[in-house]
Amino acid sequence: MDDQPGILGSVGGTPLVELQRLVPTGHAKVFVKVEGQNPTGSMKDRMALAVIEGALASSRLEPGGRVVEYTGGSTGTSLAFICAARGIPISIVTSDAFSQEKRDQMRALGADVVEIKSEGGKTTRALIERMIDVATDLSADPGAFFADQFNNPDAASGYASLGREIWDQSDGAVDAFVQSVGTAQCINGVARALRSQNPGARIFAVEPTESPVLSGGVSGPHKIEGVGPGFVPPLWDKGLVEGIDTVSTSEAKAMTRRLAREEGLFAGTSSGANVTAAISLAKELGPGKTVVTLLCDSGLKYLSTDLFSSS
After folding, report:
1. Which candidate, 158, 186, 179, 161, places its Cα nearest to that of 270?
2. pTM recorded for the entire structure
């Protein structure tokens, strides 16, 4: 995205790295896209740029207007970053269920932040719905643009570049792509971009074991930030996905710690969930195949949590 002005030109272009020590012999190769190298340390910079550009182009966001959004942290931080670079005010609704670093980073970038109390620091359907309700009320103010990440079609288009980069950096050697689902915008955008190059590309979704709603189960509380909202996302396209894997919070955290210690890759909990599922798939596919997944964000966003302090 280097045709963008100033700091916005640094969004995207992240490295694709093959895991060297975590993947056992006899498995397919596993590559990870290191999205923590985006400006705010998250893949969400891509969608935030697309959402703001789309809103400006369509005049849904007019000069002097304010952006409003609900967020688990990374989307809000990315929107705050884009808004700071463009001189646009933003109000964000989040919760203490999400790391202090994310909330601090949003404020540092100039956002007005409203925090909703959680139940024991866990992500639940009720919490996400309360956040959405508060943001919806704020978006009724004159001049407000409601980014509404679950329903905004521009969000998925922001991840098309991610799919194209994966294809180009792998020289077209992508047999399967694995990604955890929050809004479903990322897996939708990447899957469509990969399928445009290879209609046979296999796409697999990941969700928390504690809240397996995409698999037809019952929603429940978990602590994998940014994924598993507890309901089926409105833009979820199950026709794009061949299979759905579930990974528990404890499994995701354990793999995230192993990524840091054994690969030198410092990432967040959803990244651990992704890699856990990707290695499982790599075992099934076997040698000669290539699985790609995402390290969605940087571990620097989680230093105040128990992700690394209890490792």
Report:
1. 179
2. 0.94
Query: For residue 125, is pLDDT > 90?
Result: yes
HSE on the CB side for 308, CA within 13 Å? 16
Report which of 213, 43, 204 is spatially closest to residue 128, judged by C-alpha positions: 213
What is residue 1's predicted lDDT score, i.e. its pLDDT?
A: 58
pLDDT, tens only, 243-278: 999 999 999 999 999 999 999 999 999 999 999 999
Q: The tokens of 158 are what?
A: 């922001």
Q: Which structural domains are found in the chain, ordered by start? A: 6-39+159-309 (3.40.50.1100), 44-149 (3.40.50.1100)
* Residue in the structure block whose two tokens are 């699985």: 291
Question: What burial class does residue 144 get, using C-beta atoms within 10 Å of its C-beta: 0-12 exposed, 13-18 middle, 19+ buried?
Answer: middle
The answer to whether 225 and 73 have CB atoms below 8 angstroms apart is: yes
Whether 44 is a known active-site residue: answer yes
Q: CA angle 269-271-277, nearest 5°? A: 110
Q: Which of 29, 44, 102, 253 is catalytic?
A: 44
Q: In terms of C-beta density within 10 A (0-12 exposed, 13-18 middle, 19 or more buried), how is residue 248 classed?
A: middle
Q: Is 215 a catalytic residue?
A: no
Catalytic residue among 91, 270, 271, 298: 270
Alpha-carbon span 236 to 187, nearest angstrom: 9
Q: Which of 150, 154, 207 is nearest to 181 (CA)?
A: 207
CB 297 within 8 A of CB 48: no
Residues 113/102, Cβ–Cβ less than 8 Å: no
